[in-house]
## 1
Amino acid sequence: MENSFHENRSVGLLLTFIGGMMDSYTYIRYEAFASAQTGNIVLAIIQAYEHQWNMVGKKLLSTLFFFIGILLAKFMIDYFKKKQLHFWRLFLLYFEALVFFLISLHFLQPHPAIITIMIAFTAAIQWVAFDKINGLAYTNLFTTGNLKGVATNLYDYLATKDAGAKTRFFHFLFVVVAFISGVIVSVFFYRWIGAKTVLLIAGLFLYLALSETFFVWRFQREVHLFR
């Protein structure tokens, strides 16, 4: 628990669900992906050919800040590991809740490029900081790699009956289902309440941050009681 609260299955699956919501919401509202930078680069090249330079700039900036977010996340992992601060990822969850709350405010709405930058930057940090469930790697922002994991481990299990392959198959399957579910919910709510859907994303981050804070506090309390 001390080093791996962020690897809990419930945390990983909820983050993947939110990842699906983020990507679909950002594309529907701003015509850019929050995390699928392959899609952003392809769309930017197509739109450059069509001289849609404002759309190109928004996507390239999203990719740039996604890259910067990855660098920052790697730095934070090394920094807090050296400081032996194990629960810094809790603050990241609160930060994400704050970012998506700010995105809902009216003063940012005329600036879609700033919003997509904020989302891409935050998503990149989340991707790097939360990259395992119970020791098994996964991706909580997009699902191509997870789909590969479903297919390859299904094949391995059918071919060899290996129990580990079966475990990994279900691991990746749950992640893919969580991502797709997030996309479906995001599309549904956007059609229903429009831009306010972003508040649902903020609320889920806040719920996750508060619930994990409680679990960490309870764990620390029990440790001190038994010393």
## 2
Amino acid sequence: MTTEGQQLLPSIRAVCCAQRELEASVSGLLGLTRGSVRIATFHSVAAHWLPQIVQSFLSLYPNIEFDISCELEYSSSELKLIQGDVDCAFVTLPLNIHANPPLRTIFLKQDPIYVALPLNHPLATAPAYPVSRFAEDALIYIRETHDRDITTIFDCCNVHPNTRYFMEDSYAIASMVESGMGVGIINGLIASRMPYHIALVPMDPPQYRDIALAVRSQGTLSPVLSRFLEYVQSWVAEHVK
């Protein structure tokens, strides 16, 4: 974008937001017979929650349109929401970006985090994997910008991991673990439908990530977005154990 375009960008975004608010007002007058929801999310939610959520929501409101963007980095989803490029975003808590005004978050689920081990690893059948052992085993690691939850674990436990490889997603890590190249860290959503022959062992101490849905704190939510937020909360409560 040129310098001139960057100067005009805030005004362009304001016009687009005003247009969407007008469309939302019209949708409110007509009921939930039309409207759209723009969502930013990260990979595990996009793969394991959103298809069922969107499909079941559309069975009730078939004329609603969805625009879904899947981001590699948590902060990208938050930034899209802050800038008004999406209406809501799946995030992990605490947020990575301190927005002004702050985003409003709706807690959804505490997702456990597991260690992925080769089946011949001495702790493959153990009840837990000590976090301190990451300093010994070769770690196959997702880059910090993609998954800050892992970095937080090491910082809190004062562990310096023996990182050997960097990968871009959990399935690539699981494949390398299956081949015996090291150990990895897998969140509960990915672990619930893992196609690889690996052992998934809880950490000691236990570790989790908090998944939430975020919206901008300013402005009025459209009827469609309000209904979708309520629906996501009820769906997670009913279907995610």
## 3
Amino acid sequence: MAYGFYFDSTRCTGCRTCEMACKDYHDLSTEAAFRRVFDYEGGEFVENADGTVTATTYAYHLSEACNHCESPKCFAACPTGAIEKDEDGIVYIKEDVCSGTGACVDACPFGVPILVKEKNKAVKCDMCRDRIAEGKRPICVEACPLRALEWGDLDELKKAHPDAVHAIAPMADPSITNPSVIINACPAAKEVGDTTGAVANEKEVTFA
């Protein structure tokens, strides 16, 4: 069995409650966020000869944390063995073993691990392992007011949501690591590799 997330982009309003609940629960500084909400926008307005305007604009949100991949690049890249994957498929970092090389940061195609300079340690979402051990769900799932996030056995999530896809823009190609995430794509959602849109809140979701 492997745990995973389901994200319903038709429900997400981009409110950031999942992100803020995570930051509060894990007492994260402004230098880190384990879950980030991306605003993806694109399209244009075209003025027609008759004076009317045709709009092809679109916008949607993507709530993304660590994908706890089947083949995590961060795990393979870590030189000290600080990153482990447990029997439930949860990928986590042992901070006491982390040497702060940033190899995991460079290796992850989804840009998940963050190197906290003040501690010289890499940090990331651990799927709230402590809450799971207590029989609870990850805090982001509990907090979402629109119920856009679900969590559980990935195979069961796939059965419950057979039309879900493995990724939408601006995510990286899922074939690289086989992430433990499935998504209900909203009508506006673009496929991975889309070049018609861009992340509108890049500074908000980038930690360097």
